[in-house]
Write a structure and sequence with these properties.
Layout lengths: L2 H6 L1 H11 L9 H18 L3 H10 L20 H11 L9 E4 L9 E4 L1 H18 L7 E5 L21 E5 L5 H11 L3 E5 H14 L8 E5 L5 H11 L3 E7 L3 E6 L6 E3 L4 E6 L8 E8 L10 E12 L2 E8 L6 E2 L5 E2 L1 H9 L4 E8 L4 E8 L7 H15 L5 E7 L13 E3 L3
Parallel strand pairs: 3-4, 3-5, 5-6, 6-7, 16-19, 17-18
Antiparallel strand pairs: 1-2, 7-8, 8-9, 9-13, 10-11, 11-12, 12-13, 14-15, 16-17
Amino acid sequence: MNAARDKKLMNLYLFLDLGKMVHKIPKNFSKVMQVQNERVQALVKRAYEIPFYRERFDKAGVKPEDIRTGDDLTKLPVLTKDELREWMGSLKDLPEYRDWICDTTSGSTGKPVSILFSPREKAYMKANWFRVMQVAGYNPFTGKTMSRINAHDENAGGRDTFLQRFGILRHRYLNQYAPEEEMIDAINAYRPDWLYMNKTEMMRFVLYANRTGRKVYHPKFYDAISEKVTENDRELFRKILGPGIIDSYGTAETGAAMIRLPDKDYYVVHNDSFVVNVVDDDGKLAKHGRVIITPLYKTDLPLINYEVGDSAVMKTKDGVHFITEVEGRMNDYFRYEDGKVTSFFEVTPVIAHCSDILQIRFIQKTYDLIRVEIVRDEKAKMTEKEIEEYLVTNLNRIFKKPFRFEFEWKKVIPPDKNGKLRMIVCEVK
């Protein structure tokens, strides 16, 4: 594998991979499930060559030949975020991964995770997102897309690329930190065919439009990503943005693993590229339990049975899994008196670069004060005082105005009532 060469060819690989994917939900799943089984078998053979996974196989008393189907993956242990964080953290600075892509998750479950993608894996992940659009009936090459600003996005400044000048892959960024009125103005001016951003970001301007009566352009399709969309959310989204709501479910670590179309009440897995299982506390398949995802395209550094932190309800028909309900998590914003906001995604790098922090939650008490609940590694290099100074200094560089901070050091931060840990709790009305 020549990562430096592959990095230059990522766009070519993207188009080649997209051509091999299933672009419609099949009426008969037998062929795509055969593809899944073949890719599962290839994946476990490759994984067994990697010391991290060989140890997990051997501890479970499982050989690659014991795994023939996606269901058989449950013979192996669940991969937790802590395990992934430790494993990837031990690899990301090694010379052999210099030309790989290292992404960082939002940290919505407590602490960000760095994850390595080979250029081939990253190209497939991007192609899969185009496939999501095509499954919904949208052509990403001729339509106009609009999305939140992302730290990993290139050309976030808004200038058209060479292809976009000819009407191909047209795209604009929506400033998710701007006041609601400005966000609506931008949507109405660009009139996107496909709009996607984190649910709380989308919900913010939708609630404003609902409260003020402000009209918002109806995209043909829109996708509230990264967080659970409840039926109440869905009803309000339809009222403000029209009927084209798409639920694309996945994580930054895995990519978009399944989709719920506007007229459906269940999610369909992209079975040629993913295995999505629901397991109980013993790791066995269950109708209701924890969601674990295995991206079949990620073969250079695999993620087998990755626990994403959500629970779900699963039904099985003719050996095919469908997800009928997902229980997710939500975060608030840091808010300012002028209507602007800062999201957790924006402050993620500050937390990610301090390995002494194990858990953290921000509770905004007023427009000037944030209380921080925080858990420190017992083997931390920094003292509590040093960590406090680090956070205050670096966060106030990011915030749009300085905050005062109160710190509450804990042994553990208890989860919310739904079992998740909301990282930002904004008590400012």
